[in-house]
């Protein structure tokens, strides 16, 4: 009897353990998601967890962590599209499981890409005869497009040098010091020397005269930018073309031009149709454009177009035969999504020339509103140009007590993401703030931003000058004797910029400009 009751107690307690375990396991469906054990432990960061997580919990946890990302619509640092029509969102979601490279399986997607290539080539005035197919392809972005264009120039130049029995082991490319980082990547990855034309204060793009001076027999191409990343300014491609034609005639070389129209390629044809920067100029052999910038598609699409078949060496092209047709491909990667290509085709036919023009005009007007608001404050120099990509780049007239980095920092409190950065050599003592105006940046937001910048200035005026105080302390600590020579404004500005550059570089390694 006694024995049996003891056994009962044991069984009971075991049963209880099993039951309580079962209850705690079911708590994720019974109790609040946030109180469930999945949300009560910290997330794995280095090793894949042993066990699975229910889908609702996984979703919630990741969704919540992502809340701390900035709001893309208020990210004024980027040219990249942050809004599309719901109809296009739907087309993209419907195609999210299509691999672009499966051309046999998705011939319509391939066809849409080819239509985009042709439309863009015509937009850039490629010399095509009636019914002739354009030469070009879709890429992940302008970076891949530039790698491909650069490789084509390198191979063409090598072939020519070999034919002439000349050495071809020291190729170089001439650009302005304002080039986007992808050109530096191209140069390093594919072993081409990058010869950069230096900038100077007040002139932040490549000087065509200096660029042509730098061209030598090993120059595979001169890369001009239509819409400098730093201040949106268009480089003078026509002048570059004319000067280079002259030099080619004198020397017998045939140095070509590539136009990096990542941001300007979908601006100039609509706002400045008479500006000659594209295939109307004989030396322009290839052009890239980011579909995900003013092409108005979400991140993940770029285009490269060649003037003609002769400009793309045949040995770089791989041929895929499907359904009896020949599909030439020239890409760095193999698989990629189809959605962006479908979305680009949507935008091209949905908006048409009229729609793009309308959107770009609106962007330009909003840029004007912002620029005028900033000018009215009397505190800023405007570094961007009226003709160019719709953005406003500006620097403080007086940054001796508070500077652009502090303005950027304070604007974050209002939700705005506005980058501050220093210019490349020889204008590295200039710091600018840059606001990119995209389709979804409305007039109301532009006016609000002006107000918020004014509030920031007002708040900063009330604060002690952080950096000059820091400099004074640093000087004292390092025992620097205070020689009371009056520093020039430029010296003071340089000193402050250097100190801030260091301060910011220590805090984060990228400057957030893309
Ligand atoms: C954005 C940009 C690039 C890089 O383009 P991605 O599409 O982001 O790869 C290259 N050049 C210029 C001038 C740019 O503005």
UniProtKB/TrEMBL annotation:
Question: Which EC number(s) does UniProt give?
Answer: 4.1.1.15
Enzymatic reactions = L-glutamate + H(+) = 4-aminobutanoate + CO2
> Is Lyase a UniProt keyword of this protein?
yes
Presence of keyword Amino-acid biosynthesis: no
Q: Which CDD domains match?
A: DOPA_deC_like
Q: Which GO terms describe its biological process?
A: L-glutamate catabolic process
Q: What one GO molecular function would you report for this record?
A: pyridoxal phosphate binding
GO cellular component terms listed in the entry, alphabetical order? cytosol
Broadest EC class assigned to this enzyme: lyase
What does this protein need as cofactor?
A: pyridoxal 5'-phosphate
What keywords would UniProt list here?
Calmodulin-binding, Decarboxylase, Lyase, Pyridoxal phosphate
Q: Which PANTHER family match?
A: GLUTAMATE DECARBOXYLASE
The function of this protein is:
Catalyzes the production of GABA. The calmodulin-binding is calcium-dependent and it is proposed that this may, directly or indirectly, form a calcium regulated control of GABA biosynthesis.
Q: Which family does it belong to?
A: Belongs to the group II decarboxylase family.
Protein's UniProt name: Glutamate decarboxylase
- The organism named in the record is Lithospermum erythrorhizon (Purple gromwell)
């Amino acid at each position: 009897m006694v024995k049996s009751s003891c056994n009962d107690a044991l069984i009971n307690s075991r049963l209880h353990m099993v039951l309580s375990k079962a209850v705690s396991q079911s708590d994720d469906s019974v109790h609040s998601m946030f109180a469930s054990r999945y949300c009560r432990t910290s997330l794995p960061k280095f090793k894949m967890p042993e066990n699975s997580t229910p889908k609702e919990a996984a979703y919630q946890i990741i969704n919540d962590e992502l809340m701390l990302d900035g709001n893309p619509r208020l990210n004024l640092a980027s040219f990249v599209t942050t809004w599309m029509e719901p109809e296009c969102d739907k087309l993209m979601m419907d195609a999210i499981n299509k691999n672009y490279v499966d051309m046999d399986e998705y011939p319509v997607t391939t066809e849409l890409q080819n239509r985009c290539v042709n439309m863009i080539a015509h937009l850039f005035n490629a010399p095509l005869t009636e019914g002739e197919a354009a030469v070009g392809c879709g890429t992940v972005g302008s970076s891949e497009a530039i790698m491909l264009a650069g490789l084509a120039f390198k191979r063409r130049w090598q072939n020519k040098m070999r034919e002439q029995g000349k050495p071809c082991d020291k190729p170089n490319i001439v650009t302005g010091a304002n080039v986007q980082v992808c050109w530096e990547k191209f140069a390093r990855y594919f072993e081409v020397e990058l010869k950069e034309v230096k900038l100077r204060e007040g002139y932040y793009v490549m000087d065509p005269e200096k660029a042509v001076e730098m061209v030598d027999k090993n120059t595979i191409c001169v890369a001009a930018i239509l819409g400098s990343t730093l201040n949106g300014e268009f480089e003078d491609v026509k002048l570059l073309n004319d000067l280079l034609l002259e030099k080619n005639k004198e020397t017998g070389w045939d140095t070509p031009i590539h136009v990096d129209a990542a941001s300007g390629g979908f601006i100039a044809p609509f706002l400045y149709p008479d500006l000659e920067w594209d295939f109307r100029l004989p030396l322009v052999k290839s052009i890239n454009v980011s579909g995900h910038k003013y092409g108005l598609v979400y991140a993940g699409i770029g285009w490269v177009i060649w003037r003609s078949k002769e400009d793309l060496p045949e040995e770089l092209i791989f041929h895929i035969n499907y359904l009896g047709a020949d599909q030439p491909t020239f890409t760095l990667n193999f698989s990629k999504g189809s959605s962006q290509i479908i979305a680009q085709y949507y935008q091209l036919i949905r908006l048409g020339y009229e729609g793009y023009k309308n959107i770009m005009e609106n962007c330009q007007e909003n840029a004007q509103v912002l620029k005028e608001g900033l000018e009215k404050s009397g505190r800023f120099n405007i570094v961007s140009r009226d003709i160019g990509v719709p953005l406003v780049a500006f620097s403080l007239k007086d940054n001796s007590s508070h500077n652009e980095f502090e303005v950027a920092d304070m604007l974050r409190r209002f939700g705005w993401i506005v980058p501050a950065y220093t210019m490349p050599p020889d204008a590295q003592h200039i710091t600018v703030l840059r606001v990119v105006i995209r389709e979804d940046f409305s007039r109301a937001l532009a006016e609000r931003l002006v107000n918020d910048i004014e509030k920031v200035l007002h708040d900063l005026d009330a604060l002690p000058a952080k950096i000059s105080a820091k400099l004074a302390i640093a000087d004292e600590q390092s025992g620097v004797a205070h020689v009371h020579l009056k520093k020039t404004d430029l010296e003071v500005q340089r000193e402050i910029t250097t100190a801030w550059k260091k301060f910011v570089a220590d805090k984060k390694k990228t400057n957030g400009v893309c």
